[in-house]
Amino acid sequence: MTRHYDDTPILIDIPMPIVTPRLIIRPAQAGDGQALFDAKKDSMTELKKWMLWAQDDETVDKCEILVRQQYAKYIKREDMLMFAFDRARENHLIAGTGLHRFDWKTRVFEIGYWVRTPDTGQGYAQELANALTRFAFDALDAHKVFINHAHENHRSQAVIQKLGYEKEAVSKQDHRLPDGRIVDEHIYARFDTKGLPPLDVKWGVEP
Fold first, then answer.
1. E-strand stretches of the chain
2. Which of 20, 54, 116, 177 could share a disulfide with 47, CB 3.0–4.6 Å?
3. Residue 65 has what pLDDT?
4. How far is CA 176 from CA 75, 79, 110, 116, 132, in A?
């Protein structure tokens, strides 16, 4: 159970890392730039379909700047960009994920994720999203967790539905894709962990 410092969130203790059977999930930190660059390079074709931040001019230095900036936000409890690393392959970044757009007063959190293209189709997205859902409710006292996907992003939709998220709404013409198209955004939410697929997950201890 996390301590409540709603007016001074920098004092909120967040137990890390999150450990599943195959993954170690932790905040982005200094030194992760190379791992992030390699994962993006492997995934750029797919990322550019859905992510506005996916650019062809990526460099290791740009990735390193990003992870250090994001770690600063994590320390201030403003955002939680996380990486999921493969427990069996040292420093192999499987996915980018995290908890975003949250409000410490209402305890509402958004889960985001993308999986390295060569590692797709192996259930990693479901495993990490399941873990983060449990983490948000059980470690951070979430009242609500939501996941969104852009129209026609069927892979993301399948993950959300397998985790039993309830569709709340469709926000019409509210999501811009990298190719310039404006499409609908589909919004799903959970209010507890009941009915989640079983998962052996722990946090705050070393694997």
1. 18-19, 23-27, 80-86, 93-103, 108-115, 144-150, 166-176, 182-190, 202-203
2. 54
3. 96
4. 30, 22, 18, 22, 26
Contacts 24+ apart (CB under 8 A), 164-171: 164/190, 164/195, 164/196, 164/197, 165/189, 165/190, 166/190
Is 4 within a domain?
Answer: no
Task: Using the predicted structure, report yes or no on whether residue 5 has a pLDDT greater than 80.
Answer: no
Q: What is the CATH number of the domain that holds 172?
A: 3.40.630.30
Q: Is residue 74 part of a domain?
A: yes
pLDDT at residue 171 greater than cutoff 80: yes
Check: pTM over 0.90? Answer yes or no: yes
The backbone torsions φ and ψ at residue 122, rounded to the nearest 5 degrees and listed phi first, read -120, 10
Residue linked to tokens 């305890």: 107
Structural domain containing residue 143: 17-197
Half-sphere exposure in the Cβ direction for 179 (13 Å, CA)? 8
Domain count for the chain: 1
Q: How far is 91 from 93, CA to CA, in rounded Å?
A: 6
What's phi and psi for 194, nearest 5 deg?
Answer: -60, 130
DSSP at 78: S
> How many CB atoms sit inside 10 A of residue 41's CB?
13
- State whether residue 80 is helix, strand or coil: strand
| Residue 203 in domain | no
